[in-house]
Amino acid sequence: MGVSHWYFHWEARIIINTLIIESLAGVPELSLAAKAIYVVSMFKQQPCIDALAKHTDFTPRHLAKHLRSLQKLGWIDLVKVGNKLRPVAVVPRDVETMIANQIRMRVSIAPYKGEETTALFIEWIVAPGVRLIRHARPDFLRNQETGQNLEYDIFAPEVLWAIEYHGDQHFGPTARYQGDRAFVERHRRDLRKIQLSKENNIRLSVVHNRIRGCCRIGYAS
After folding, report:
1. Burial level of 110, CB count in 10 A (0-12/13-18/19+)?
2. From CA 115, how far away is CA 170, in angstroms rounded?
3. What is the band of 204 on the pLDDT scale with cuts at 50, 70, 90?
4. Which of 15, 45, 97, 195 is most buried, judged by most C-beta within 10 A?
5. Number of domains in the chain
6. Is there a domain that residue 125 lies in?
7. Per-residue exposure over 201-211, b if at least 16 CB sit within 10 Å of its own CB, e if not
């Protein structure tokens, strides 16, 4: 990673985090306690509501009340993992749009574009408090034809969510990736990945790698 590449990534993270917290602070419907709970969830993901209660010193009853108000306004998503609910810090749609508009100019003049830029928005806007693994090859993605594991571009195992970046070559032959046979093989792998994701209860999201802003992502599974 070059210096300019690293600096843009670092600067964008600071800008996005600042805008998220400033937007949260300006929500009159949320109490100071609810906002504090969001910030904790944003920077330190907790495995379940009980763990968050212990970490914040709130009683389960009071924590549940604050989580409901955060969820109602689109700041928290409660994800079922096993028999427990995990609080995940998210960002409301209008705040996503505002942040995307603020940072779009920086993205347009960035020294790199594509997957890294899209990843930045996903990691720090869509799911700022979720641990994401790049280029993950979980065992359940075993390709029976090759004996090797297929790969997710980004995988969030705790919330059963995976993300794929699809360039033009996933939709047909291109100047760089020529030949119908190569496209058919790639399409077969994509379909196999979708099937294995469904079988293992993984929510698979697909983003075209030309997207360079914040967006709601279409689900393949």
Report:
1. buried
2. 14
3. confident
4. 45
5. 2
6. no
7. ebbbbbbebee
